[in-house]
Amino acid sequence: FNPKSQILGLPTADAAIGLFKGFPFGVSNVLGLDALVSMTYVPKLTQDEFSVDPGSSFQFGYGARIGLLSESIVTPGISFTWLQRDLPRTDIIATLNGASLSVLDMKVSTKAWRVVASKNLIMFSVAGGIGQDKYDQSAIVRGSASQGGVGVIAEAPGTSESLSRVNFFGDLAY
After folding, report:
1. What percent of the chain stands above pLDDT 70?
2. Shortest CA distance to 71 belongs to which of 153, 16, 126?
3. Nearest-angstrom CA–CA distance, 13 and 74
4. Under a CB-based contact definition with an 8 Å cutoff, are residues 67 and 33 in contact?
5. Is 76 helix (H, G, I), strand (E, B) or coil?
6. pLDDT of amino acid 6
7. Which of 160, 65, 163, 64 is nearest to 110 (CA)?
8. Cα separations (Å) of 166 from 36, 110, 169?
9. Distance of CA 79 to the CA centre of its chain
10. What integer pLDDT is reported at residue 1 of this predicted model?
């Protein structure tokens, strides 16, 4: 396994599909709706002492964006976005000289939301917002070793972790 020969590690593609422009409100629109779709690819890999085996190489995610206020000549754009994006259930196994380390039935799930305000100002644009990401993961971690005919296996079944973080962000483009 040579990571330098990999062109893309775990590619992800996201797309938005406009479903509803929203209701007219002055020179703007309110409550527009976009469908969000996401696709993540995890390659199956087996080389020498290392393997990555996803249950499925592709995992799809979904979400929605609500245009609370569409950007116009006088108003900023304000939107709320929610997206669930996961990785496929995967086994990772490394073996060397009679010892192995396995991370089995690994699953990572993410849910994210954002509120964003943006405005184009002729020569440049500004945007800013706040959001939260929530990560949930679970796996079985197993290690084994043998030497001189004696083998030892240790397992941490059902390990899981949850993490949330709040994001503040800004953008300035020329």
Report:
1. 95
2. 126
3. 33
4. yes
5. coil
6. 59
7. 163
8. 21, 13, 10
9. 20
10. 47
d(CA 109, CA 157): 18
Distance of CA 110 to the CA centre of its chain: 6
**Residue bearing tokens 């192995």:** 100
Residue among 86, 170, 75, 68 at smallest CA distance from 129: 170
d(CA 83, CA 133): 10
pTM (2 d.p.): 0.79
Helix (H) or strand (E) holding 10: none
| CB-side neighbour CA atoms (13 Å) of 24 | 2
- Find tokens 């990571």 and name the residue: 3
3-state SS of the chain: helix, strand, coil percent to 5?
0, 80, 20
Alpha carbon distance 105, 114 (integer Å)? 30
Residue type, 80: F
User: What share of the chain in percent tops pLDDT 90?
Assistant: 71
- Nearest alpha-carbon partner for 113 in 68, 63, 159, 72: 63
Low-confidence ranges of the chain (pLDDT < 50): 1
User: The tokens of 25 are what?
Assistant: 């409100």
Contacts of 137 (CB under 8 A, 6+ apart): 106, 107, 108, 109, 160, 161, 162
What local confidence, expressed as pLDDT, does residue 15 receive?
96
